């Protein structure tokens, strides 16, 4: 697992930068209703959005800029990430563990977890995070999350063919499992979207560097198999040509509103029939 305290400084540059952030923010906002800045559609109150696992805030800042009427809060567990995000959104970022959020029930009209659930230790931890997101979501609110992140990077390239036999851990963000977690927490499916990971296509040379840095979480850098995979990657043509970008998937869920729907009475003109 990567140390995100150390990764913060170069995180954006190695993961698509602003183009990828723009694609992610646009896709997320497409799944959150814009009702005059009130995702929950509640009159007389500005909407609130929590971007959990906000990282450097590069996406969070775009969410806030695109919806001026939306009060956006970023949260991240890593101190260095939260500090970087706070420079982009002063006064709007907190340090928080996604399993124990420091907010009361039903605080937010929307909650997002972009590139977070895949970092959970296992499915049980992912379920805890989804449950907390549901807890702080207001009735009628929307939860949006990325799913199947690791699979998004398998684009059918020659690099993927070389890495096909690498060890993998069960993905904690598998779409079917995340949907089950959401349902368990009272959330219902409400749509999906996809966006490209612009600038994240792998080249053989960059993939070798990633292997040696420990980016493939089931392969430690000191694992003897790393050298074997690296040798096979080094034999591929076009060492610096990036293969196709990954395509990430978003799923949206809504929290049921327990309030009864208003009773519509038949219209009467008041004139005698």
Overall description:
The protein is of the alpha/beta class. The chain has one domain: Rossmann fold. Helix content is 33%, strand content 19%. The chain contains ten helices and seven strands. It has a seven-stranded mixed beta sheet, with helices on both faces. Helix 5 crosses helix 8 (175-184) and helix 9 packs antiparallel against helix 10 (224-234). The longest helix is centred in the N-terminal third of the chain and has 13 residues, at 17-29. The chain is globular, with a radius of gyration of 21 Å. It starts with a helix and ends in an 18-residue tail after the last strand.
Strand and helix map with partners:
Blueprint: H1 4-7, H2 17-29, E1 47-52, H3 58-66, E2 70-76, H4 79-88, E3 93-95, E4 108-113, H5 123-135, E5 137-147, H6 149-152, H7 158-163, H8 175-184, E6 187-196, H9 204-213, H10 224-234, E7 247-255
Parallel strand pairs: 1-2, 1-4, 2-3, 4-5
Antiparallel strand pairs: 5-7, 6-7
Helix pairs in contact: 2-3, 5-8, 9-10
């Amino acid at each position: 697992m990567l140390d995100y305290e150390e990764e913060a400084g170069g995180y954006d540059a190695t993961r698509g930068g602003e183009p990828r952030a723009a694609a992610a923010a646009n896709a997320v906002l497409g799944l959150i209703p814009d009702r005059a800045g009130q995702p929950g559609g509640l009159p007389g109150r500005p909407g609130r959005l929590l971007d959990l696992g906000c990282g450097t805030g590069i996406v969070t800042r775009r969410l806030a800029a695109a919806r001026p009427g939306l009060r956006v809060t970023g949260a991240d567990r890593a101190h260095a990430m939260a500090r970087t995000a706070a420079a982009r959104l002063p006064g709007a970022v907190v340090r928080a563990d996604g399993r124990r959020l420091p907010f009361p029930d039903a605080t937010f009209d929307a909650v997002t977890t972009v590139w977070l659930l895949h970092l959970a230790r296992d499915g049980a931890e992912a379920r805890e995070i989804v449950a907390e997101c549901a807890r702080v979501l207001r009735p009628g609110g929307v939860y949006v999350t990325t799913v199947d992140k690791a699979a998004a990077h398998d684009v059918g390239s020659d690099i993927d063919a070389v890495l096909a036999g690498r060890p993998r851990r069960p993905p904690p963000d598998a779409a079917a499992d995340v949907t089950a977690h959401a349902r368990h927490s009272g959330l219902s499916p409400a749509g999906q979207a996809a966006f490209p990971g612009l600038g994240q296509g792998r080249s053989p040379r960059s993939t070798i560097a990633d292997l040696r840095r420990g980016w493939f979480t089931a392969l430690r850098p000191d694992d003897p198999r790393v050298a074997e995979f690296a040798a096979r990657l080094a034999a591929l043509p076009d060492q610096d040509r990036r293969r196709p970008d990954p395509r990430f998937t978003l799923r949206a869920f809504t929290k049921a509103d327990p309030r009864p729907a208003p009773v519509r009475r038949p219209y009467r003109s008041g004139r005698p029939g």
